[in-house]
Amino acid sequence: MSEELQTTVRELPEATVIDLVGDVTSFADARLHTSFDTASARGLKYIILNFAAVEYINSAGIATVISILADARGRAQQLLIVGLNDHYRKIFRMVGVARYAELFETEQQALAKIAEPAS
To answer: Does any domain span residue 117?
Structure first.
């Protein structure tokens, strides 16, 4: 494990991005929920969780992500997850996170998906 989680909320026209830097563990729970609440308050449909600068995620961190997914669904918002390495992408699929949040390699791919016309 490297460091406590730091978050930055970035506002884009079509989505709000939460950049994560550090480890996603039980210690990250409050910070991640606070950042999600800030992002959600903008009222946009899409919120992107950017894991590109995350080295370590444990089961408590995954539980926090699942909790945020539930919050997003309750607010009629959609969570998109970007930047997971292959190992964590596989774990997120195994535990079912990918059923409720689309996983993308890059933020640009997620933004391209948002920009697609609804079918």
So the answer is: no
Q: Tally the domains of the chain.
A: 1
Give the whole-number percent of the chain exceeding pLDDT 90: 93
- For residue 28, the 8-state DSSP code is G
Quote the crossing angle between the two packed helices 29-40 and 59-74, to the nearest 10°.
Answer: 20
Which class for 86: exposed (0-12), middle (13-18), buried (19 or more C-beta within 10 A)?
A: exposed
Tell me if residue 36 falls in helix, strand or coil.
helix
Q: Tokens for 113?
A: 């998906």
CB environment 11-25: b (16+ within 10 A), e (fewer): eeeebbbbbbbbbbb
Helix (H) or strand (E) holding 72: helix 59-74
- Domain with 96 in it: 6-110
Q: What is the pLDDT of residue 119?
A: 57
Q: Which residues of the chain have pLDDT under 50?
A: 1
**Domain assignment of residue 73, yes or no:** yes
pLDDT of residue 1: 47
| Domain presence at residue 27 | yes
